[in-house]
Design brief:
This protein has a single domain (2-70), classed as YefM-like fold (3-Layer(aba) Sandwich), CATH 3.40.1620. Helices cover 39% and strands 18% of the residues. It is built from 4 helices and 3 strands. Strands 1-2-3 form a 3-stranded mixed sheet. A hairpin with a 2-residue loop joins β2 (25-29) and β3 (32-37).
């Protein structure tokens, strides 16, 4: 991944736009990551993953058993009051 300041990005927009077709370009401001430029293809791929809904049939019996055995970490006890 390429990191570039917002000033550098503005000066060489076409270069970074083309580079984003092959790899993410992180744009920084005051040394902090602010924006990531990615290709439209990569964006669509990520959106498809984001919207994938799984049903119980998607899990193996081992997956279901592992979920049933799972215990929340002790740090999550502070949220118990939100359960009503």
């Amino acid at each position: 991944m390429v990191k570039v300041s917002s000033t550098e990005f503005q000066k060489n927009f076409a270069r970074y736009r083309d580079l984003a077709l092959t790899q993410p370009v992180t744009i920084t401001r005051n040394g902090r990551d602010r924006t990531v430029l990615i290709s439209a293809h990569e964006y669509q791929r990520l959106k498809r993953l984001d919207r994938r809904v799984m049903s119980l049939a998607d899990f193996t019996p081992e997956d279901v058993a592992a979920i049933e055995r799972a215990m929340p970490p002790s740090q999550s006890a502070r949220f118990d009051r939100e359960l009503g």
